[in-house]
Amino acid sequence: SQTIHQWPATLVQPVGSPLSLECTVEGTSNPNLYWYRQAAGRGLQLLFYSVGIGQISSEVPQNLSASRPQDRQFILSSKKLLLSDSGFYLCAWREKDTGNTIYFGEGSWLTVV
Amino acid sequence: GQQVMQIPQYQHVQEGEDFTTYCNSSTTLSNIQWYKQRPGGHPVFLIQLVKSGEVKKQKRLTFQFGEAKKNSSLHITATQTTDVGTYFCASEGYNFNKFYFGSGTKLNVKP
Question: Which of A49, A96, A103 lies at the smallest CB-CB distance from B98?
Answer without folding.
Answer: A49
